[in-house]
Design brief:
It is built from 20 helices and 13 strands. The protein is of the alpha+beta class. The protein has 4 domains: 15-109, no CATH class; 121-242, no CATH class; 247-345, no CATH class; 420-540, Beta Barrel (Cathepsin D, subunit A, domain 1). A hairpin with a 5-residue loop joins strand 4 and strand 5 (456-459). Helix 7 (107-120) runs antiparallel to helix 8. It is flat. The chain starts with 14 loop residues before the first helix and ends in a 5-residue tail after the last strand.
């Protein structure tokens, strides 16, 4: 073979880029097979074959030679001049293909081509910064993969001379930026990412950033989240802060889409190690809604003024009521009214997390200490200084505190077993007071539900409950976790929406599924219609 391509065909030639296009063109011309398999030697030059070859076989061989010449011309016409000159002596399309592949498939040739790409790398006029940075990152990554990482100085020098004219005013500021201590090409790329989308304002914004970093370095303190040991993280944090500052709900955007964007940014802050404060999240949510929600803003502010409200509560309210901004204010007013009543009546201890006493009366509260050194407020005798478990006073078996707590409980003269699920047609929600029933539970979900007697109780989560029915595992979805009720509740209106139906005959109740098959039969009793469900508890899965 005349050509010797041990050092590669040419720095201008990229076999990996050229070969798919060449193959397509050869296939379109019907000559790809001859490139793959080659042409057999001339049978007339082989004595054993020359005497016996048939005219048909000789004609087929000649057609194969014609196809080979055609394929060779197609390939040579698609090569750069520098490669064509090196391969002009090649007489076979298969030999040329194999030679090009071999000469450009070694690591040295690939590395030379990559260095050539870096040398020619320039940002096009009008090219988005995001696309340019993607091209830069791809080249840097390929150097790294081939275990020949490019030096910081080389990358920085290329980045500073590869920008178009619109960035001329930014170049001196970028050079000043790179004089700061301990910066690498990654920091320069982050500066491009943060400020490069708007070349007209980039110099001013970048100078502000430089001043922040300078002050942080001189003070030896983290400044605005800046950590000199991890500048990449700090650049990301600044970008997040900028995104959060600009976050607004678009006109016509669905509430689900907007909340998804909000939660994504909150999660990014948390993952960065600098979680955003509750006050900042609430303030942003109340000031970033689009104009159709103007009438709802005052009611949302009233809601967030209630005790112990968190961003999760506000997000939950927006998710539930935000799909219809025109009816949202009135629905929110009713919700705020019921929630205010619930919070006013609710007994809750933040120390031991129980509902049967207040925090100031808790035995475990270290601040509740009387003059004699005793702790707690006894619900047995009503005196301060000890807890009911330590009380020796049995004169009043039903003290005022106990009666007061009992008044606050839901009035129900019946008792219910844990496996009983009462079916009600007047409620819109499935509910249970048993946390252990949930196979999945979102404790961030908060709200209030009004019971049939007018009382409002707090919802502390939502999730799924699984149970076995006739050997089949089934799931009740979106069950509310309501610790202060005393029974499990199934909403038949929810079941009806899923195609279930109910028939009453005498005292017997038959419930059919969406296919019309009998789901369950049960008897109506004084407590109502009850099902016995074999719930699969969380720890028995």
């Amino acid at each position: 073979m005349a050509a010797n391509l041990q050092d590669g065909v040419s720095d201008d030639f990229d076999y990996e880029h050229w070969s798919p296009m060449a193959e397509t063109r050869l296939m379109e011309n019907g000559v790809w097979d001859v490139v793959q398999n080659g042409v057999s030697p001339n049978p007339t030059k082989i004595p054993q074959l020359a005497a016996t070859i048939k005219a048909v076989d000789l004609a087929q061989w000649r057609n194969r030679v014609i196809e080979d010449n055609k394929a060779l011309k197609i390939m040579q016409s698609s090569l750069p001049d520098s490669v064509f000159r090196k391969t002009i002596s090649i007489a076979s399309s298969k030999d040329l293909w194999d030679l090009l592949k071999k000469g450009n498939d070694n690591e040295e040739a690939k590395l030379r081509r990559l260095e050539k790409q870096l040398e020619k790398l320039m940002m096009y006029e009008g090219e988005p910064m995001e696309l340019y940075l993607k091209r830069v990152e791809e080249i840097i990554e390929r150097f790294f993969v081939w275990e020949n990482p490019i030096s910081d100085d080389k990358v920085i020098a290329k980045l500073l001379i590869s920008l178009p004219r619109s960035y001329d005013d930014s170049i001196p500021v970028l050079k000043e930026f790179m004089t700061l201590p301990d910066l690498t090409h990654r920091d320069l790329l982050k500066a491009f990412e943060l400020f490069g989308s708007h070349p007209e304002t980039m110099p001013q914004e970048l100078m502000k950033f430089i001043n922040i970093l300078r002050k942080a370095h001189s003070d030896r303190l983290p400044c605005s989240g800046y950590d000199k040991n991890n500048p990449n993280k700090d650049a990301k944090l600044l970008r997040l802060e900028k995104q959060f500052e600009k976050l607004m709900m678009y006109d016509g955007e669905s509430m689900d889409s907007y909340l998804e964007r909000v939660l994504d940014i909150i999660e990014q802050f948390r993952a960065s190690g600098y979680p955003i404060s509750d006050d900042d999240v609430i303030a942003k949510l109340l000031t970033s809604l689009s104009w159709p929600y103007d009438d709802a803003i005052p009611v949302l502010e009233e809601l967030m003024n209630l005790p112990d409200m968190t961003p999760h509560d506000l997000l939950g309210v927006l998710e539930i009521h935000g799909s219809h901004p025109e009816t949202m204010p009135q629905g929110l007013k009713d919700f705020v009214k019921s929630l205010r009543k619930a919070k006013a009546e609710q007994m809750w201890c933040g120390v031991c997390k129980k509902y049967n006493h207040y925090q100031e009366d808790c035995y475990y509260n270290p601040r509740v200490v009387n003059l004699s050194g005793g702790r707690g407020h006894c619900f047995q005798c009503g005196e301060i200084g000890h807890y009911a478990r330590d009380c020796y006073n049995t004169r009043n078996l039903q003290p005022a505190a106990t009666l007061q707590a009992r008044k606050r409980e839901v009035k129900d003269c019946f008792t219910y077993d844990e496996d009983m699920w009462m079916i009600y047609t007047t409620t819109e929600n499935h509910m249970t007071p048993y946390e252990k029933f949930f196979t999945s539970l979102d404790r961030t979900y908060r709200g209030g539900v009004q019971l049939s007697d007018g009382n409002v109780v707090m919802v502390e989560g939502i999730g799924d409950v699984k149970f076995m029915m006739k050997g089949v595992k089934m799931t009740i979805m979106d069950v509310l976790f309501v610790p202060r009720i005393n029974k499990n509740v199934l909403s038949f209106s929810r079941m009806k929406k899923r195609g279930y139906s109910m028939e009453m005959e005498g005292g017997e109740c038959t419930i059919r599924d969406e296919a019309g098959k009998i789901f369950v039969k049960t008897m109506r009793e004084k407590r109502g219609i009850a099902l016995r469900l074999q719930v699969i508890e969380r720890y028995s899965l």
